[in-house]
Amino acid sequence: MMELFEMAFFKNAFLMCFFLGILFGTLSFFVVMRGLSFMGAGIAHTAFAGVALGLLLDINPFYTSLAFCVASALVIGRVVRLGRISYDASIGIFFSFSMALGALFIAFRKDYTFDLMGYLFGNILGITDFDRTLVVAALLVFLPFIALCLHRILFASFDEEVAAVSGVPIALLENAMLIFLAAIIVVSIKIVGIILVSALIVLPASFGLLVSRDFRMVLATGIAYTILIMLGGLFLSYRLDTPTGATMVAGGTLVYFAALGGSRYLRNQ
Question: What is the pLDDT, as a whole number, of residue 267?
Answer without folding.
Answer: 65
